[in-house]
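WARN no homologs supplied; continuing
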Amino acid sequence: MTKFSLVTIMAILLGNLIQAQNLTSSPYSMYGLGQPESNEGGQTAGMGGLGTAISDNTFINLANPASLTGLDSLRFYFDLGISVRSFNYQSASNSESRTEGNFNRLAIGLKPLKNWGLSAGFIPVTTIGYRIKDSQYIEGTSVTENIYFEGSGGISKLFIGNAYAFSPALTLGFNASYLFGRISHEEIQNALTVEEKSYSKSFYTDFGLIYKERISEKIPFNVGLTYGYSQRLKLRNELNVMESDGSIITHDKLRSTNGYLPAFFSLGIHSGYGEKWTFGVDYLNQDWSKNSSNSSVITFTDMHRFTIGAQFIPKPRVARNLLEATNYRMGFSIENSIYNIRGENPLIYKGSVGLGIPLKNNSMLNLAVSYEKDDASGKNTIQTSALKFNLGIAFSEIWFVKTKFR
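OK structure emitted
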């Protein structure tokens, strides 16, 4: 792939990512800023989202900006991720299934200097994608009419990641991000649509650290930390009343409101044995409690997630066939929901398996399948399960070698 064609593909994909983003159909996405996105991809998706302490020269690890010094200084990295998700929602009286999908990450990375790693890209931060049908009686009659409540949009970010290795053991990094987004909530009734739109933009920075040691020649030991502060997002709101053909009857500007991205902290440990085995454990905390839901029965709370994951490569250097060179991955995580619903805070269990299939020039095709389900009772809440498919393509090409002529 030529440099020009790669840049062209990136520009086209970035335009599509910004314009079309729908990765959830959860009815709870109507509250606050929407459903949070984990942005799992590449190696991390097959390992349950593990990544806080991983620093690797085969992929761009978005879980920790300090990982960027692990990239190969002679190569240019391009990472594209696609996610398809099949949801099932179960309440005491009803069930429904939906499938959603879209690009979920776009990133480039390189290592301009020996101790300096650099990345840039686009990822969704939250997504909204609900559609709810209700019925009510027309006033003065026994006739009912359908009302639809629909939502779309979310918050996204463009980021530039930097990392610097102060020593072979210690690396610090940060992401400088531009946050932006549009959120739309619609009520569609008969020939009229009432739409409330919100717009927001802001700048944000989060930080990472990785410390590397070796227990022995074959056993590495990494510790990773990440931190991000709570970011207030001012939402500029407007209200439109439209006819069925889309023409606007009234347009009003509403009072601005606030949403908050959570303060977060993660701690990870990553180790392995030789080049065949890698494994680790992560802990993540996000504080969503500053957000409000405009519902008396739903509040936001802290989220805690524990993740374990592992990878096995049968023959890392001397593989005789594709099966021996393939990376085999698995992971498991448990977390609590960011929502307290009628006093209930469900736990969410997720199991993942994945493959990393080597391609030419150290590039890799990453496939992952995960299944998650919460333990909501389904009486006063909606129980959710989801089957998720992740496909990632990590291109790695030598761009920075100078040819010598004699």
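The longest helix spans residues 3-19.
OK
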